[in-house]
Amino acid sequence: MKKITALWIFLGFLTANLFAWELPGYGNLHFERMGKSNVWIMHGPPEEPSVKNRGFMNNPAFVESEHGLIVIDPGGNYKVGRKILGEMEKVSRKPVIAIFNTHKHGDHWFANRAIAEKYPKAPIYAHPNMIKEVKAGEAEKWYGILDRLSHNLDGTKPFRYPDHELNDGQKITIDGQHFVIHHPKKAHTDTDILIEHKESNTLFLGDNVMKNRLGGFDSSSSILGNIELLEGIMKNGNYALYVPGHGPSGGKEETVGPFLRYLKVLKKWAQKAYDNDEDYYAYKKEAIKELGPIAKWDAFDHQMGKHLNKVYMEIEEKDMQ
């Protein structure tokens, strides 16, 4: 009997691995349960979208409720979404009953279509600013970016836009799971929501926090606003788990702390340059030296200078008001 049981266990393991999503260079990708909670996360490669990673580099997650799955940021294209859906079904055969999109950037929500194709009645929630902006051209802009970098967006169009609005402070209950929505006026973008899941004491941060990689700040972003948001998070509350948009999840200090430090170092040296009536790049080397190991994060070499320039311009604009 023991031999038969062992054989079945081995065959189950073999079958699961035969059909696992193997991304060359990254191994088998799968969802990981966060402790004993009902939160599951697949941590994508913390790097820029590329042909190698097929445009998958965010952190898709889901909350398992009694009757279904509630998905947060399913990924960056249709093909990735199909793979992610397959990995979800290995964890649970329950249907997807809702989707949250944290902000407008396509690497987080283009996989909506793959999920909605199988579960068309599942509502997709986002901030009204996101819904407005993606329909006004942001989706097409990001399609161009991700298609050029990953060459993996076949099937992503037509876009499956979010269709239910969520506003700051709103409380929403889905199949017995309780969520609170937080919308910073302007941080990573002006379309973001942070999602607090009460049952697991988890805070989904979106791209307001990244770890081990750097992304861009566009005209809808505010580095000063991002700093203010993260300082508030560091001072108030203590969640069991903090989930960034990119990079590993964990406790407050290890997850939120490094990105906040990065932004504050940029602000410090940009402020010094502004006060001394010098160009922002005059202190770039000093800022890099102070940042230490953060300088090894993915995309640092071509993002850090842009970020330093942006915060310099924000300081200047604030002074002119």
From TrEMBL:
A Pfam family for this UniProt protein? Lactamase_B
Query: InterPro entries attached here?
Result: Metallo-B-lactamas, NDM-1-like, RibonucZ/Hydroxyglut_hydro
Domain (Metallo-beta-lactamase): give its ranges. Answer: 57-246
* Protein's name in the database: Beta-lactamase
| Natural source organism | Nitratifractor salsuginis (strain DSM 16511 / JCM 12458 / E9I37-1)
